[in-house]
Amino acid sequence: MTRFSKDFIFGTATSSYQIEGAYKEDGRSLSIWDTFSRIPGKVWNMDHGDVACDHYHRYEEDVEILTTLGVDSYRFSIAWPRIFPEQGKYNPAGMDFYKRLITKLKENNIKPSVTLYHWDLPMWAHELGGWTNRESVNWFKEFASICFEELDADVDSWITHNEPWCAGFLGYHQGVHAPGHTNMEEALKAVHHILLSHGEAVDLLKNQFQSKTPIGITLNLSPVYAASNSTNDRLAANNADGYGNRWFLDPVFKGSYPVDMMNLFSKYVHDYRFIQAGDLEKISIECDFFGINYYSRSIVEFSSAADFLYKGAYSDYDQTGMGWDIAPNEFKELIRRLREEYTNLPIYITENGAAFDDVVAEDGRVYDTERQKYVEEHIAAVADLNDEGMNIAGYYLWSLLDNFEWAFGYDKRFGITYVDFETQKRTLKETGHRYADVIRTRTI
Ligand code: FCB
């Protein structure tokens, strides 16, 4: 039975720092990930993205893989330090790479879906305070503006930001992502400026450029469950949901920050004046779609010792190689909740996938059965949701290639293409072959 219409978008996703390499080429300057990955203890094995998948030089071969898969669309991001290696200094040579890539995609009938910010903030911006500095909104606008000017004619959809939760909270509060800070006040400012820059970019594209290209934001969302029905555990779940989901969903869709969380965060932030008049109207500007990255559910319990009164609880679910619960049913519950509480916009699943320890078999193939099962279950969930009328317009598998998995370096493989990082040889895993069948037959 056909379960996906002809216009449903199947794709794969990547991001610049994770795959490109060529970290000094054609005028690129350093990003916060280039420097963060060089601090001992921050990234597994002290891995870094100097070469990564060498995609900068091998993009043609990688587009061929996309063609083999038969995807409708490819989601990638633009490295800001290629475009503005210094403040205010545009570098056309860096932009040319994306033009070449887009041309190649178009030749193969693959729709480019372009993310402006997938975490590689230029070091020059970081040195001026990074996202904690309200000026970052203007720097981002300048970057977005040149991308729109140069690329909009050939881009099928724009995503302003990928996962502000990670950029803001993992980067400035938990310190596990670049720039590695551990300051909640900085984190809240960073998130606010990231969200504001999203609104500004949408406004720019729609009102200044008068473009009809769809634009939206991608949030990572994880539905939160309480370990028990006790008052304490339910409070814990509420707080975890506030920290992980509502702090982003509410401003984007309701034009307000959740007051319960403002109270909780006021342990660290006594002055919310960085939220200025008009900001929340800008942040909640109307978009054309909503992007969601979904990997897992969360289960939490009360902890009086924890900052926000919750901690991860024991789970008996099967897990991926990241130790993340495999939870396609909870994915459905998440989407239903979003429909009820937040938005009617078309939803794109802009990332979904799983890391497992892959091995290349003697026959040269990669039999990644666990990943295949994960992907099949989640694509089936998308089909079920659409049967319920949930209007999911597309699904992007993370990721096209094994790549630099941030703090986990090259230790965690999310690709549907196996990459031998010594030789740069690519091998489509069994999940990749299966995905090609799903796309061709539109069935699961
Ligand atoms: C998401 C990121 C992506 C990748 C996957 C596994 O949080 O957007 O870059 O790391 O997780």
TrEMBL record:
Gene3D superfamilies: Glycosidases
GO annotation, cellular component aspect: cytosol
PANTHER family, alphabetized: GLYCOSYL HYDROLASE (PTHR10353), LP05116P (PTHR10353:SF36)
Biological source species: Bacillus mesophilus
Keywords, alphabetical: Carbohydrate metabolism, Cellulose degradation, Glycosidase, Hydrolase, Polysaccharide degradation
GO biological process: cellulose catabolic process
GO molecular function: 6-phospho-beta-glucosidase activity
Family annotation (Pfam families): Glyco_hydro_1
EC numbers on record: 3.2.1.21
Family in the record: Belongs to the glycosyl hydrolase 1 family.
Annotated positions binding substrate: 18, 118, 162, 295, 398, 405-406
Active-site residue list: 163 (proton donor), 351 (nucleophile)
Reactions listed under catalytic activity: 6-phospho-beta-D-glucosyl-(1->4)-D-glucose + H2O = D-glucose 6-phosphate + D-glucose; Hydrolysis of terminal, non-reducing beta-D-glucosyl residues with release of beta-D-glucose
EC category name: hydrolase
Protein name as catalogued: Beta-glucosidase
